[in-house]
Amino acid sequence: MSRKIAAAAIRGAHKIAKQAEEMIEKAIQEKGEDAAVEFPNTGYFIPIIYAMTGHEVRKLSDFRPVMEQIRDLLPPPVEERLWLPYLGPALDAGMATLFAEEIIEACKYLIGPNPVSDIWLGAADDVILRERGIQFVDGTAPGFAAIVGAAPDTETAVEIARKCQERSLYVFMCAHSNGTSFAKQLEEAGVQLGWDTRLVPFGPDITAAIYAAGFATRAALTFGGVQPGDFRRNLLYNKARVFAFVLALGEVTDEWYATAAGAINFGFPTIADSDIPQILPTGVCTYEHVVSNVPHDQIVEKAIEVRGLKIKVSEVPIPVAFSPAFEGERIRKEEMHVEFGGQRTPGFEWLTSLPIDQVEDGKVEVIGPDIDTVEEGGQLPLGITVEVAGRKMQPDFEPVLERQIHIFCNHAQGLWHMGQRDINWIRVSKDAYKAGFRLEHIGKILHAMLHEDFSSILDKVQVKIYTDEAKVKELREQARQVFQERDARLAGLTDDAVDVFYSCTLCQSFAPNHVCIITPQHPGLCGAYNWLDGRAAYEINPAGPNQPVQKGTAVDEKLGQWEKVNRFIVEKSQGAIERMSAYSMITDPMTSCGCFECISALLPSTNGIMIVPREYSEMTPCGMKFSTLAGTVGGGRQTPGFIGHSRQYIISPKFISADGGFQRIVWLPKMLKEDLHDVLVARAEELGLGGEAFLDKIADESVAATEEEVAEFLAKAEHPAIEMDPMF
Ligand code: SF4
């Protein structure tokens, strides 16, 4: 290893450790040593320290033993005339640096300066981790670039950011150089920052690099089932599964070197634009560790090569960039050239299949005025019909493909899409319009992407785009008829009426033993896959993560156990899980990965269950916040008394039907009650529980914060769960 780098990294580590020590003392002086210390809404305490050492920092004095560990890890400064193999000590210095940086950032939350200010976002909470982590699971985000410092100018910063976005990478930004920062440069250029655009400004200091490392560390705990304290597995997990790298832009200080040494522990290499020594031999990282002097127009490509990332870029013939990284881009009214639908003008989108001789592949027709006929900020009606044909195409696939219109449109820079069917709402930005974007390009996107992702079932795609109001209204009526027929078909599908379920093992990349069994009445835990999606996905990619699972003979109809399903589970969980009940959270419940929308947890003294969605960050009556519960239940484990599931499953007739079903619900946070109000009332009516009256018998945080308070509330409200048989 380069002696110069090791010397600088170790020097930097000592400086940051000293800063951390001073920060702790200052915080203790101001707040007292029992002052609670935490990053907002996380169940992982101070995450890198927790993940690597298992130490739960709850109050300021808990940092003292961490400081001891930092001192133990810190190697002595490198001597001028002594040459040693420096890699080990430099890596230790790197880890000590990350611990010390976490202390500094955590203390800032207590005594300031607040990490969340101006453009800076500070720590990502567990809701963001799960929401974004799933993109690392399903491959829509291949990795992240941690950008430290600033580009030489704003244009270069924008170019580097765009290149990362076009490759669907997240960009995590920290530190500054030459009086500015990469994030500030993007802000100056009017680029939208935030989690939605994958351009995340963590903080203006190098210490904010720990938010990126902490994200990766928590991903291993959340999705990989890695236990706190198992630092070796955590680091290996990151090297194998989280494709991240550091881009160091500007003069590399001792503190930067120290932080980069911390990143190398995770297998994350550093690529620099300045002339620093390189570390080329492979070892901890997959390939080189430090590559320097890379020109700005090649730096993203070089980083991808050095990290060993495989990136698929879709070629779509439109005049704006196209990548999943643009899907969170918003187009405000003042940035918009034109909008369609959204209750402002009539609109719809409808995908239908036709006989093969009635579809001309690649044909895109615009029927009515195009967007160059409207004034800036104007509106037009819009009807999009996508006609597809293919030997393997089935009518049941139509809604699955139609839902892709939303996703594909949002991948185009400057095109924004919301809703579906006859409630769609689309905007085109002024920038996209100036770049030459016209209505035919919506057709070109849909043609290219439907072929790209669904070529195994589609042979031909043609698109018609209508802006003539009378025509849009006429076709919308036809489309509405079809939407109603589709809904009736899906509503009629039950578990008992089919012989085959579908598996999903997509989350095994993060939770190796997890298998979702998707049935017509039990969607995947993430809520993104129902039975029809599973079937379509299998047809599209027969070797993919969605496989048909024959039910076979029933082992126990009530529990929802079948012989062949159990056999499948044993095989796909690598023998870790022997049996799975589709309808019970007590007896052999389904495993939970980490992407579930909700968790149901037994509240033993109430004879019922509470349900908490991932968006609810407060304490729950079972004594755990969602994030702690998720850590207990997730990672591919089977945990009797707890299950992860989708929102949709709550109103399914099969919802924990073996354990008493829907009427076992005794506590829901208000937000979930409100979000699902109508369907909850409808389900309660269906069961003869009195609709709205039943909802009033379910406790929420405004009336019960503990299990005892829930029990008291239920007794007063005469909740039916009280009279039911015990759950176990
Ligand atoms: S269906 Fe299950 S395995 Fe598939 S992505 Fe969703 S949660 Fe993960």
Number of helices: 23
Helix content: 25-40%
Radius of gyration: 27 Å
| Heterogens | iron/sulfur cluster
The major sheet is characterized as: 6 strands, parallel
N→C terminal distance: 60 Å
Indicate the structural class.
alpha/beta
Characterise the protein shown here.
The protein has 23 helices and 23 strands. It is of the alpha/beta class and 728 residues long. A six-stranded parallel beta sheet has the order 3-2-1-4-5-6, sandwiched between helices. Helix 1 packs parallel to helix 4 (87-111), helix 3 packs antiparallel against helix 4 and helix 4 (87-111) crosses helix 10 (254-265). The protein binds iron/sulfur cluster. Iron/sulfur cluster (SF4) binds next to loops.
Task: Fill in the keyword field for this structure.
about 725 residues; binds iron/sulfur cluster; 23 strands; four-stranded mixed β-sheet; about 15% strand; six-stranded parallel β-sheet; single chain; alpha/beta; globular
Q: What is this structure's SSE topology?
A:
Layout: H1 3-31, H2 47-53, H3 63-73, H4 87-111, H5 126-138, E1 143-149, H6 154-166, E2 170-174, H7 182-188, E3 199-203, H8 209-224, H9 231-241, E4 243-249, H10 254-265, E5 270-272, E6 290-291, H11 299-307, E7 336-341, E8 347-353, E9 364-367, E10 378-380, E11 382-389, H12 398-402, H13 404-410, E12 415-418, E13 425-429, H14 430-434, H15 440-454, E14 460-466, H16 469-491, E15 500-504, E16 516-518, H17 531-540, E17 548-550, E18 554-556, E19 561-562, H18 563-572, E20 598-603, E21 608-613, H19 626-633, E22 642-645, E23 665-667, H20 670-675, H21 677-686, H22 692-697, H23 707-717
Parallel strand pairs: 1-2, 1-4, 2-3, 4-5, 5-6, 7-10, 8-11, 9-14, 21-23
Antiparallel strand pairs: 7-13, 11-14, 12-13, 15-16, 15-17, 18-19, 20-21, 20-22
Helix pairs in contact: 1-3, 1-4, 1-10, 3-4, 4-8, 4-10, 6-7, 8-9, 13-15
This protein binds iron/sulfur cluster (SF4).
Residues 504, 506-507, 516, 524-526, 528-529, 593, 595 line the site of iron/sulfur cluster.
